[in-house]
Amino acid sequence: MGIAGGILCRFVNIFWTGFLCGEKNMEQPLDQPLQELANLLIQSASKIVFAESCTGGLISATLARFPGISFVHCGSAVVYRLDTKIQWLGIPAKMLIDPGPVSEAVALAMAEGVLRRTPEAAIGVSITGHLGPDAPPELDGQIFVGIASRGKTCHVVGHRLPTGASTTALTGYSGLTEREQRQWGAVEFVFQQLIALLRGGTIAH
């Protein structure tokens, strides 16, 4: 960790702790993994960019809650519709037909596409999935997360989000629909993958 990154981490953690203590009414899901991921990104000076489909920008919005994250957070391309995936990220139209938008191939192409279009970023992350309602049974709750790093092997991880509150981290956040719970569960899963990667160079399954 560089000196600048260390100083920035100490400063933003003091600010973040004060923010959480003084603004309990503003508390939101995933504060703890958010802080851990933000610290790891800042410490490593790893700039990151996202391509989000099923989460609709929620990953980026959650990360942006952390003070000083602009040091490493480049932004997010919300590519919800098929044509947006084609126009913004260069995803081949044939790939969106077969194997389809919710697939390992598309997740990988999204991660590589957004990284290719963001020269300052070192890591490109994508998510695509079907969070319901009215999802085909074989895809209900299915997400794929792609992680592309410059000069390194790219990864795609599939995960099936269960019905209802998807993780213990979301317990206590009432008033969420099943779709919203799954969106938060998807954000948490992405954070888990990135934390594992930045801490030890491995993707957590």
The whole-angstrom Rg is 17 Å
Question: Strand-residue fraction?
Answer: 15-25%
- The run of helices and strands is HHEHEHHHEEEH
Looking at the structure, what is the overall shape? globular
Residue windows where pLDDT falls under 50 for at least 5 positions: none
Largest sheet: 5 strands, mixed
Helix content, binned percent: 40-55%
In whole angstroms, the N-to-C terminal distance is: 27 Å
Category by helix and strand content: alpha/beta
Task: Look at the structure and give the mean pLDDT.
Answer: 85
Secondary structure tally: strands:
5
Secondary structure elements and pairings:
Blueprint: H1 3-22, H2 31-44, E1 48-52, H3 58-63, E2 73-78, H4 82-89, H5 93-97, H6 104-116, E3 123-129, E4 142-149, E5 155-160, H7 178-200
Parallel strand pairs: 1-2, 1-3
Antiparallel strand pairs: 3-4, 4-5
Q: What can you tell me about this protein's structure?
A:
- The protein has 205 residues and is α/β, with parallel strands linked by helices.
- 43% of the residues lie in helices and 16% in strands.
- It has seven helices and five strands.
- The chain has helices at residues 3-22, 31-44, 58-63, 82-89, 93-97, 104-116, 178-200, and strands spanning 48-52, 73-78, 123-129, 142-149, 155-160.
- A five-stranded mixed β-sheet has the order 2-1-3-4-5.
- β1 (48-52), α3 (58-63) and β2 form a beta-alpha-beta unit.
- It is globular, with a radius of gyration of 17 Å.
